[in-house]
Structure formats: structure tokens, C-alpha cells
Amino acid sequence: MFSRIHIMGASGSGTTTLGQALAEKLPHVHLDSDDYFWEHKFTKQSDKTQRLAAIKRDLDHAGTWILSGAVCGWGDELRAYFDLVIFLWIPPELRLERLKAREYERYGKGILPGGSKFTDVQVFLEWAALYDTAGVEVRSRTLHEEWMSELGCPVLRLTGEMSVDERVEAVLSHLSSQ
């Protein structure tokens, strides 16, 4: 059994959701990279040295775990921690619709023109839309592919539109076949 699983993909691809769902089925603790990356969620980044020390401490302590969210760049030295990496990809249109819905759920009418979060959300969505076309200078599929090419563990790719249950089943099937 794989005891140290990392789930990565674009913002809105479902990494956190899959991590939580798998943690309900497996004897693994679920951790999310956003909890380390942000000092104040989505507004102020934490210090890189401190976030890396904190995530390493928690991964070392957890035993069996699932880490969701990308750690490319700031967490490159974590590559050796992983037994399995799961890469999620969904079509950009679906992913961006999910992100818009999530932001509305989070901030309500504040994301609409004239709202207090409108500009922040627009900047975020523009950044998120770059995932499938940008180079390694931003969090992109190109960066993720390059990062995964340097892994010493298997990569399970789940691509296309799948329900959470279908993804969980695909992962559990993969794990049981090993």
C-alpha cells in the first residue's frame, strides 16, 4: 500500500476534494498545501522556510498521509517523500466554472462588479485561466509536467470529467492492483 500520497493539479481540478474523500476510505491523514502556503488564507503567503519546515514536521509525524495541492517550487525537496503522485486534469472551461462557483460560495455578491472582492477574484480567475497555456513561470500544466518528470515514484493520471466517487474508485483500484 502507498502510505505517502500527493494529489496535484490546477486550481479547481479537485485535489482537496479528492484528498478529503480518500482520507475517508483509507487509513491516511489528509493535509492540504494551502494550509502551509498561506499565513492568512488567500491574502498573505507564509514564509517559505517556515512553511517547508511545518509541512515536513507534519508529514513526518502523520505516518500515512495524503497531501493535496501543488508544492512545486517551494516544496521541491518533498519529492522524495512521495510513494505515489496523483495528477488531476479537467477541461479548462469546467475548471473555471467550478472556480467561479467556489468564489461565489466563499464571498457571495462581493465578487460581482462593484463588490469588495470583484478585483481580487478577477485577478485570481485570470491567473487560474493560464494553467493550460502558460510556461513554467507560473503554476501551469507545463510546470507540473516538468516537476513530475523528476519524481522517483509512480504517477497516476486522472484526466477528464469524473465525479469524486469515480476518482476515488479509480485510485482505490490502482492501489489494490499494486
Short description:
The chain has 178 residues and is an alpha/beta fold. It has helices at residues 15-25, 34-37, 48-62, 92-107, 118-129, 141-148, 164-176; strands at residues 4-9, 29-32, 38-40, 44-45, 65-68, 84-89, 155-159.
Overall spatial form? globular
Strand line-up in the sheet with most strands: 2-5-1-6-7
* Order of H and E elements: EHEHEEHEEHHHEH
* Major β-sheet profile: 5 strands, parallel
Proportion of residues in helical segments: 40-55%
* Class inferred from helices and paired strands: alpha/beta
Give the strand content: 15-25%
Uncertain segments are none
Q: Alpha-carbon distance between the termini?
A: 7 Å
What radius of gyration results from the CA coordinates?
A: 16 Å
For the secondary structure, the number of strands is: 7
Number of helices: 7
Mean pLDDT value: 93
Characteristics:
about 180 residues, 7 helices, alpha/beta
Description:
By secondary structure, this protein is an alpha/beta fold. 44% of the residues lie in helices and 17% in strands. It is built from 7 helices and 7 strands, in the order βαβαββαββαααβα. The protein has a 5-stranded parallel beta sheet with strand order 2-5-1-6-7, sandwiched between helices. Strand 3 and strand 4 form a beta hairpin. Helix 1 packs across helix 7 and helix 4 packs antiparallel against helix 5. It is globular. 26% of the residues are buried.
